[in-house]
Each structure stands twice: as C-alpha cells, then as structure tokens.
C-alpha cells in the first residue's frame, strides 16, 4: 500500500512539474509572436518620427516634405510648402533653432497607424524680445539691418543658462505606406 502511494505521488508530482514547465514556456513570447512584431512596429515608427523632428529642427524642409504622407503631398506641392516655410520663418529665431529639445512621451499603435505625443522645449522668443526690446510685437516694416542688430543683441544677452523656455506638447500621426512610415499632418 505504501509503495502504491509513493508511486502515485511520484507520478502526480511529475505531471505537476511538467504542467508548470509547459505554462512557463507558453508565457514567454517567441520571436515571431505579435508582441515582438508590435515592438518592432513601434520602434520603426519612433525612428521615422525622430528623423522627421530632427529635419524640422534643422530646417531641412525638403527632407521634412519627403517624410510626409502621400495624402498630405497630394494637397500641397513641395514648391507651395517651401514658400510657406519661407514666409513663416522668423529671422530672429535663426540663432536659437539649435536650442530646441524634444522628448517622445508616448507612441501608441492605433490599427495600422501610430499616435505619438512629443514634448518640445524651445526658447521663448516672444519673452526674449519683450524683455530685451520692451516690444510686444515686431513692426512689420522692420529693416533687415534692424533685424540683424536685434538678433545680435539677443545672442549676446541669452545663453543656455538664462534663456526663457516654453514647453509644448504636440500630437503626431504616423501612417505606414509600403515599408515606410510617413507623417500625416492632415492638411486640408
């Protein structure tokens, strides 16, 4: 009787250990399982987003345009985009683009797209102008010579340690086109 009990307990213990090993193996993801694919999906989108933001900060507008979705490109030509960027560029900001910093706060898969939230930290040029020149708004008819003088004064007055900074979050949508990630700005 005692032998039967020992054999029965041994078999039960062996079955229990085997069941534990099976569940441990099943819970560890394999390389070809969706978790890894999803991780690679997000990593690829993050790399594309970083490339886009870096090109934007360095004002490489041709590169920025090349990273836009085909839907956005169908709504605005490269020539129109380049012209818009020229018109929106603040000549006083030239010296401070390299001070822009960003952090990708989140990337979330949304079907075949990825939604990303990016926090930007950038010089508060408006405050710098107000504090340095006691101006609320720049005059529209300011000469290039006056702008250059103002730019030099701002550069002399502000460095990394005393520069006022603004923080702003921005939402991005990345779409998969073929094998590449593109930014969708939803231009109308």
The separation of the N and C termini measures 84 Å
Classify the helix fraction into a percent range: 40-55%
- For the record, the CATH architecture stands as Roll
Average predicted local confidence, pLDDT: 81
What attributes characterize this protein structure?
188 residues, alpha+beta, 51% helix, disordered N terminus, Nuclear Transport Factor 2, Chain: A, single chain
Question: Could you walk me through the main structural features you see in this protein, from its secondary elements to its overall organization?
Answer:
This protein has helices at 2-27, 34-57, 61-66, 70-75, 78-88, 125-133, 144-157; strands at 101-110, 113-123, 165-177, 180-184. It has 188 residues and is of the alpha+beta class. It has a single domain, classed as NTF2-like, domain 1 (Nuclear Transport Factor 2, Chain: A). Strand 1 and strand 2 form a beta hairpin.
Task: Compose a concise summary of this entry.
With 188 residues, the chain is of the alpha+beta class. The protein is 51% helix and 21% strand. It is built from seven helices and four strands, in the order αααααββααββ.
Per-chain topology:
Layout: H1 2-27, H2 34-57, H3 61-66, H4 70-75, H5 78-88, E1 101-110, E2 113-123, H6 125-133, H7 144-157, E3 165-177, E4 180-184
Antiparallel strand pairs: 1-2, 2-3, 3-4
